[in-house]
Amino acid sequence: MAYPAESIINITTLINSAGLGTSNFGAGMVFADFDSSSDATFVAGTYRDYGTAAQVAEDFNIASDPYAAALAWFSAIPKPKTLRIYLRIEEDTPVESLNDAISKGIWFYWYEFETSIRAVDADVLALAAAGDAASKFFAFTTNQATVRDPSVTTDIVSKAFVQGSRRMFIVSHATEPYAGFELAAVFSRVNFNAANSTITGEFKKLPDIDAESLTPTAYSTMKSKGAIFYTVVETGGEKDMGRIINSKTTSTFGEYIDDVFNLDAFVNFERVALYNALTKVPTKLRQTPPGQQVLINAGSQVGEVFIDNGYLGERIFTDDETGEEKISRGYEMLTKAEEILRISDSERANRDSAPIRMRIFRAGAIHAVDLTANVE
């Protein structure tokens, strides 16, 4: 028997793990009442995935709310790939249903409930608060006529803005129950890894939703209260039949839908990138400047992705250290690798990195234009 080469050359292989992937921000969920399904095998407290409204019609009557929500969701252009429907447990409150799905690890980002639930303002506000706390986005539609009445301050839009939940928007429509869910479906198709992929909700078209033509008072009231509306736009006798206007959330910070949506995605991408930078090292990430630089680079790479997809953009800013005006491409990494040398003994004992500080500048979106023409 020959002498084995393995006794001379010992090779150790170090394999990187796959790490985490980023979240699916296109996942929509309808919470259906326990008695809504026509399929007796659909068990309360569970969910099913559907690829078309026709598939939903196999489990729900076409006159049902879940089917109406699915019809709105799959009418969006580009068309979403799937919709998830969770069948609520009979005894559960709306918030308990939301939390049950979350606690079971059923992933979704956008969500809606049936009209019987949405008719109760207290339930709507409780769902908005619970969803916001769990980083879920309530794509809500109201048919309350009082939203368009300037003398009323107790409508659901006014109440929601007092509460100030960031992850909620409200479309006001006289008849359509799920116009907001179709707007969420438009956002659901954003691919944050693709170039120029981020969008604004403003001016989007909603196929199969009736565009409204309203009074000036109704328009001004909805804008002042913060309601989104889907309207005919007209000038000089020419009409554009259907555009979303005033695409804001109910956020205390005055954010548009894309402000909240994009930031949620950015935070998720950063968390995943930093986690993978920590865990995919076969040996260890040293508590030294080179180790700190690995984390800084991971954070910066996400910044580059979000410049490319259009969320971050150029901005003039004042440098905190020098007081000089500078132009940013879209983000500034403020932490230096050498800061790891100055962490405290307790931080070093805890195996901490130096805190990573990053400044980001949103590219925003243009929603209005002023033009002055000097006639000579």
Q: Strand-residue fraction?
A: 15-25%
Quaternary state of this entry equals single chain
Number of helices: 11
What structural category do the secondary elements indicate? alpha/beta
* Average pLDDT metric: 95
State the end-to-end distance: 102 Å
User: Gyration radius, to the nearest Å?
Assistant: 25 Å
Organism: Pseudomonas proteolytica
Pfam families: DUF3383
Protein name: DUF3383 family protein
Task: Describe the structure in your own words.
This protein starts with 27 loop residues before the first strand and ends in a 16-residue tail after the last strand. It is built from 11 helices and 12 strands. The protein has 376 residues and is α/β, with parallel strands linked by helices. It has helices spanning 53-57, 65-75, 94-103, 115-118, 121-133, 156-163, 179-188, 216-225, 257-279, 289-308, 345-349, and strands at 28-32, 47-50, 83-87, 110-113, 137-142, 168-172, 228-235, 238-245, 315-318, 325-328, 331-333, 358-360. Strand 7 (228-235) and strand 8 (238-245) form a beta hairpin. It has an 8-stranded mixed β-sheet with strand order 2-3-1-4-5-6-7-8, sandwiched between helices. The protein has 2 domains: 28-257, no CATH class; 281-360, no CATH class.
In short:
This is DUF3383 family protein. The protein is an alpha/beta fold and 376 residues long.
Keywords:
376 residues; alpha/beta; eight-stranded mixed β-sheet; two-stranded antiparallel sheet
Describe the secondary structure blueprint for this structure.
Elements: E1 28-32, E2 47-50, H1 53-57, H2 65-75, E3 83-87, H3 94-103, E4 110-113, H4 115-118, H5 121-133, E5 137-142, H6 156-163, E6 168-172, H7 179-188, H8 216-225, E7 228-235, E8 238-245, H9 257-279, H10 289-308, E9 315-318, E10 325-328, E11 331-333, H11 345-349, E12 358-360
Parallel strand pairs: 1-3, 1-4, 4-5, 5-6, 6-7
Antiparallel strand pairs: 2-3, 7-8, 9-10, 11-12
